[in-house]
Amino acid sequence: MWHTRRQIFFSFTKKLANMKTYLLLALRIITAIILLQTLRFKFFAHPDSVYIFTTVGLEPFGRIGIGFMELIAAFLLLIPRTVWLGAGLTMGILSGAILMHLTILGIEINGDGGSLFYLALFTFFSSTFILWMYRKEIPIIGNKF
Known about the structure:
Helices cover 74% and strands 0% of the residues. By secondary structure, the protein is mainly alpha-helical.
């Protein structure tokens, strides 16, 4: 059966919309996994984590408090109605981490080659992208975008 150009176009745009939905879901899951996998270092007082928070003057309450905030942010990213809130919270937490790397800690921590810094950058930019994509769902101000 022959399809018109219009049918082909609408079929293609529907497939793109589905792909966008799945890619955003995958990015949300990846970001949440990154947040969750770093919790074991914070909650179980890994020496690198203790060193970082001691250096910035937030050990132990800052380490544990930020760990709980990251846990909350990860769950909020996975709940469809609160994705925007989880992305915003993640951006706030990681902007502090990036700022500490750039001012006090340095890019490389204990010979890690900067992996913590680059992971923080990736997670910050992924949460920024997620927040941008879900900006219309933000209460009160979302309809203005």
